[in-house]
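hey so u asked for the seq, here:
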Amino acid sequence: MIRVNNLSLQFGKRILFDEADVLFAPGNCYGVIGANGAGKSTFLKILAGQKDANKGTVHIEPGKRMAVLKQDHFKYDEVPVLNTVLMGHQKLWSLMQEKDAIYAKPDFSEADGIRASELEGVFAEMDGWNAEPEAASLLSGIGIKEADHYKLVKDLNGNQKVRVLLAQALFGDPDILILDEPTNDIDIETITWLEDFLIDFKNTVIVVSHDRHFLDAVCTHTVDIDFGKINTFTGNYSFWYESSQLALQQKLSANKKTEDKRKEMQAFIDRFSANASKSKQATSRRKMLEKLNLEEIKPSSRKYPGIILSQLREAGDQILDIRDLGLTLQGQSLFRSIDFTVNKGDKIAILSKNSLATTQFFEILNGSTQASEGTFKFGQTITSAYLPIDNERFFSDEPMPLLDWLRQYSTEKDEQFIRGFLGKMLFSGEEVHKLSNVLSGGEKVRCMISRMMMAEANLIMLDEPTNHLDLESITAFNNALINYQGTLLFSSHDHQFIQTVANRIIELTPNGIIDQLKTLDEYLADQQIQELRTEMYEGEFAHSIP
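ran it, structure tokens below
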């Protein structure tokens, strides 16, 4: 158990939270949400003892061990992968080090023998003999092959390093597990593995994530940082979101009778409780929802962008034709034999186990990278817009106010016209004069979305569009793409984003293409496809299935 009492944090005149009281109980998973800048990651650092609050206390039940997902991807570069995971249980690791040092002594004494015996007893009590097999099992489950377990961490790529640090946090069954954005830079299969792991995890989990499907799958409670307060609600993210929207609608309906409001809210809770009966955490979650106090549900102060994607002209029947496209970088085949036709109205999720492959695929289509082989051709009626994963080149020139930055991409130069597109992405008032070189990652993506809306393209290409965005912007973007009438190609690791938008899945592999008219869930559930995927990534042939 971990208890927060009277916690306050303030930066200058800005109050993140004031006199907050929160209880995190064993067996529950808490999703911490809040707008960008609300203090989610800072709150986790306070819980982990990495940062001090202005006042208040954090009390952890004596004898309980806390594990925290590390954010420093270079800290363990000189350490073997397996040892890095074992170091997640610091007490056990220190014991192992001391024990090994004693046995390595050339002048092993009687005192050393006594101490070694004591250490062996504690080691056995801590189930130390199973530590390495457990660490290896975690690594394998999270996508690190056995051949890589004894490499130095520095010899892994960035995505693999993230997985190793995640395995380190999960290792040894910690009593309290703190995870800040654990799904960043890992693929959908690994995210699914992590979801299953946390659903079965018996202790306390506190997590910050922008992945709505992940929050819905694992969380029993939602901790909302809003109005300078920290409030805990029963239920997962979708329940919080839908209930807060309902509460907002009721607040705006000032003349609505109190009894009508109560009935409407109760009907919503009953409906959500029935849906919860189908989940893996069904029984406990339904009981919690049935006990929910209606007065706990309040409207949120969040603001949602107004993303509207329209076409200046409708496309003809010829959209995009790709023939035998391939790319090899530094001797590594990222993809080859990519051969497909994009049809009008397609919303295609482009997948790959290697995110570099999807990025380079989009860079080829947009003229920034030269393919090693093959051709592609757009239809004559096509106007395209592209949101790259790395947008720095759009902001690297001399700094300029956002009004001028967006104006350079518009044929219409009127200030009110430009302000309209910035305003839809929550840049209002004096914010339109903010310089382009001081923007956060999320603000830059919102600027790029303003630019894309203004283009009114009939073909949109997006490479990891939810990176850097908060949950509110992701939700608005998701809904806009569902409603978009044009053709769409996009990559993403956001399960819900793909599931609700894509009507076709194309996976790029080093040995060919898999192309299916399926939703993501249907694609992942098809055993024949999963067996083929294994062959395509490990085999030596080019292969596709209809």
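The two ends are 53 Å apart (CA to CA). Residues 74-166 form one domain.
lmk if thats what u needed
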